[in-house]
Amino acid sequence: MILNKTLALWRQDFPLINELIALKETSWFNPNVARAAAALADVGLTAADVANASARLGRFAPYIARAFPETQVSHGIIESEIQAPPRLQAALEQRYTIARSGSLWIKKDFQLPISGSIKARGGIYEVLKHAEDLALEEGLLKITDDYALLASDDFRKFFNRYKIAVGSTGNLGLSIGMMGARLGFQVTVHMSAEARQWKKDQLRSHGVTVVEHDADFSAAVAQARRQAISDPCCHVIDDENSTCLFLGYAVAAERLKRQLDFAARTVDAEHPLFVYLPCGVGGSPGGVAFGLKLVFGDTVHCLFAEPTHSPCMLLGVYTGLHDAVSLQDFGIDNKTAADGLAVGRPSGFVGKAMQRLVDGYYTVCDEELFRLLALMEETEGMRLEPSALAGVPGMARVLTEQQGYRVRMRLTDSRLAHATHLVWATGGSMVPEPEMTGYLATGKKLLQEEAAGAAGGQDGIDFFQTRHGQNSGGSAG
Ligand SMILES: *Cc1c(COP(=O)(O)O)cnc(C)c1O
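That is the input. Now the predicted structure with pyridoxal-5'-phosphate docked in place:
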């Protein structure tokens, strides 16, 4: 029984559940999408909130530039470039048998400074907001000050009176730990089972307390919350519910608009923009998509991508049950090599807030993530972690869908011919070399097997087990 209903009845009422349980790659185009002008009101946050977040990041820029010298080139603004990958686009057209339609772009968040993933947006933003709140309250700082002064021993001593706790699958902890520790906070990161060893090692070397849990992300978040309840000096960063994180991600949209303008990519009804976002708990894709809808309205179409073993957001939105159910309730194991996406229960806030704003959700199997990882490096020389490839099949899913989506959204062939398809490449530049070598070897092997006709879409390789059984550099991850 799941919420007073048998599994058989759930399967009958929501047929797509059968595909999710069978771990088949699937796509679901959301029939409830509404006009941005109406649906943005569901979120409970506004353009003014995003503008505030953007202004706050601007105030902190002088501090960031001083504390992290690698950000001096961008004057302390943590941002990534966009790039067209023509060889990858050609390879994908062949791979998924689709005709040329529109152009493919990549948002290179794997190169974001400080933590090498999209979490450098929301995670770092919430730490900065908390630091600012504390310093303003104590009368140590005015918002008109040059925040570079935060890089002093006095401020480090002040922030050292306070603690930050967070539950993470790896990258959020890395972002919050690196930023929090630099400011002087006592940071504890509760890592879920899939967190990579190098992320824990790196955090510990920066003085962050890492608590390892042999449980999934939701359990790690619960631990972080428990720690904060008993300690008034401890701020918990709650990825399942935080609107602050969400706003940090949303700031990406106005910056993307400037980048697209600079690249002379028009976005309007005749030139739609599609954005493919890997989704774990939903905070990062949700926040980015919210920002995009504010900036581009109905001309942007956002799709969320999840591993076949961890489709928690698709399950939650499709059934309308959101965070009331977990993958495990439906017998889905949440075991994926895409560690950043290994989440069993979606954010309740994001799923509900965005349920009329996200065009679709799709799943990708781990084998395909690895093949695309190898293909990305082969064609464009970009090295990503498995989670970051989930957006890559999105363009083909849109162009081959048969659920009436393109008709409903008036995405005619001529509009699609002028479309920009943006793959949000969410992480990877900090993966240590031996581990990246292992990822690439796995991807290449799978591509070769596929070319030899041997693999045939099998789902038999248990990457999760491989990883935990023998944590050597040469294994799948
Ligand atoms: C965390 C993460 C995501 C997904 O973000 P959520 O906020 O959990 O949905 C995607 N890619 C990478 C590399 C991540 O670390």
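Confidence is low (pLDDT under 50) at residues 465-477.
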